[in-house]
Amino acid sequence: MEPNLGTIVRSISIGPNREETGLESLQFREEIHRLMTVPPENGSSFTELLQLPETQAMELLHSAHSDEVVPVPLSGEPLHGINDDHKSYLPSFNGNLTFPSNKVLIERAAKFSVFASGEHSPETSSVPSDSSANLEKVKSEPAETDSNPNSSQLLVSDPAVNIKNQRSEKRKEREKKGKGCTKKSKIEISQDAEKLPYVHVRARRGQATDSHSLAERARREKINARMKLLQELVPGCSKISGTALVLDEIINHVQSLQRQVELLSMRLATVNPRVDFNLDSLFAPESGSLADSNFHSMVSPLLWPEIPFNGNRQQHQQQWNFDALHRPLWGREEDNHTFITMENSLLNYESANSASLHSNQLKMEL
Amino acid sequence: MISKGATWNSNSCRIKFARRFVSALLHMRNRNTRPGSLTIEGVRTHTQRIKIAAYLSMAQAVGSRRAWSRAVLSKHGSRARRHSRMGRSSVGLKKTRVIRSYPPGELGQAKKLRQLVPGGKTMDMCSLLEETAHYIKCLATQVKVMQTLADNFSK
């Protein structure tokens, strides 16, 4: 008898769905007929049978129920969802249970208890294996078994009424267990919560759940996300781990960029007035002597253009390229005439040159 | 017309900045016709003016969307300059009176970052990081444009 019941128990425990409640009721009726053929042994042993495993009978109900709850996407208010499931499930079950004859009811409860006893052993065997669902069941079991002994005594006297009472108590414990569920089985649900339109931060397992720490955690996550963005922006920063070093790198990068701006502005400053001056000097008849004087006086500013851009920008190398000094003098008048048209050509030049000219120097993409 | 090369987003910032900056340079050049910029000091002031023009044109290209651009515009804007020249340092006073909330977290580096990024003194850590990211992007554009300009001039 028991192995048959055990098989039926396993089939029920495998698929706890709403559709299977119909199957359950069918199997219950089969078992009830089987039980009716077998006469009850003793009143006392039956009540014993009722008392202890009845707790686990309810446990069976709730365990079946818990598997139902977790896969359901908890959108918004999960606690209310659990309560609704609970309430909607139980009345249907009440309908199944309220048989016309008390005798049938007792037999059914007995059958539940046997189910529960059959169910309990696989549960206890699976306790050592760490799966979160079993952990939930195990942890809620002591809570339920503690409160159940007093209610189980009531059940002996009048099963029809007391099952309902017990169920109401079970409902409260179900809520607690539900809250435990939502707090413990968190990892999948937190991911769903992030997709919601409003910011809904959940407590993870082992973390504090007061509002202050939640807000701080949200803030920390925001800051970490922005730090990641910055790391991608700054070249060579993705390898570094740790906030302090990354920040140092970012600061260095910003400082180097600002220094580059200053250098370039100095370069442009020397280039710009030289346009006028060289033009005047070039048009002057005494070009030779003036060029010499220009050369000596303008040695230092003229060197600035040659500093960076033949090779590395970061180094302040003063390259005494006198050929380069002479070349700009002549190129200057061309630039002066075509200044405005150069703006257009400059923009074209930029878009063409952005990859080639600056990629090796700046290693940055916009 | 000018052909806009890559994606619209990356180029619009660059083109806006380039236009403004080049026009500012032209304007400065037309103003500064005297050959007094041979001296080191002259070059230095000229450099300073060009630098400020670069930052200003970049901030104008960005607009008032970003906190750092607003800070730059308020610091170097024409009205602010008039105020400082007239002696009314109300803008400066307002800035120093702003209470800085030091949020807990990274200490030394956040302070440095606030000094580097314009307008970073009155920002919390979260927005500071966001502004830094945008600021780095715009600084990179600025450097590219100026480099191209300088290369074109020195050829």
Automatic annotation (TrEMBL), chain A:
<protein>
    <recommendedName>
        <fullName>BHLH domain-containing protein</fullName>
    </recommendedName>
</protein>
<keyword id="KW-0539">Nucleus</keyword>
<feature type="region of interest" description="Disordered">
    <location>
        <begin position="118"/>
        <end position="185"/>
    </location>
</feature>
<keyword id="KW-0804">Transcription</keyword>
<feature type="compositionally biased region" description="Low complexity">
    <location>
        <begin position="123"/>
        <end position="132"/>
    </location>
</feature>
<feature type="domain" description="BHLH">
    <location>
        <begin position="207"/>
        <end position="257"/>
    </location>
</feature>
<feature type="compositionally biased region" description="Basic and acidic residues">
    <location>
        <begin position="166"/>
        <end position="178"/>
    </location>
</feature>
<dbReference type="GO" id="GO:0005634">
    <property type="term" value="C:nucleus"/>
</dbReference>
<dbReference type="InterPro" id="IPR011598">
    <property type="entry name" value="bHLH_dom"/>
</dbReference>
<dbReference type="GO" id="GO:0003700">
    <property type="term" value="F:DNA-binding transcription factor activity"/>
</dbReference>
<dbReference type="Pfam" id="PF00010">
    <property type="entry name" value="HLH"/>
</dbReference>
<keyword id="KW-0805">Transcription regulation</keyword>
<dbReference type="InterPro" id="IPR024097">
    <property type="entry name" value="bHLH_ZIP_TF"/>
</dbReference>
<dbReference type="GO" id="GO:0046983">
    <property type="term" value="F:protein dimerization activity"/>
</dbReference>
<feature type="compositionally biased region" description="Polar residues">
    <location>
        <begin position="145"/>
        <end position="155"/>
    </location>
</feature>
TrEMBL record, chain B:
<dbReference type="Pfam" id="PF26576">
    <property type="entry name" value="IBH1_N"/>
</dbReference>
<dbReference type="GO" id="GO:0006355">
    <property type="term" value="P:regulation of DNA-templated transcription"/>
</dbReference>
<feature type="domain" description="IBH1-like N-terminal">
    <location>
        <begin position="11"/>
        <end position="76"/>
    </location>
</feature>
<protein>
    <recommendedName>
        <fullName>IBH1-like N-terminal domain-containing protein</fullName>
    </recommendedName>
</protein>
<keyword id="KW-0805">Transcription regulation</keyword>
<dbReference type="InterPro" id="IPR044660">
    <property type="entry name" value="IBH1-like"/>
</dbReference>
<dbReference type="InterPro" id="IPR059002">
    <property type="entry name" value="IBH1_N"/>
</dbReference>
<keyword id="KW-0804">Transcription</keyword>
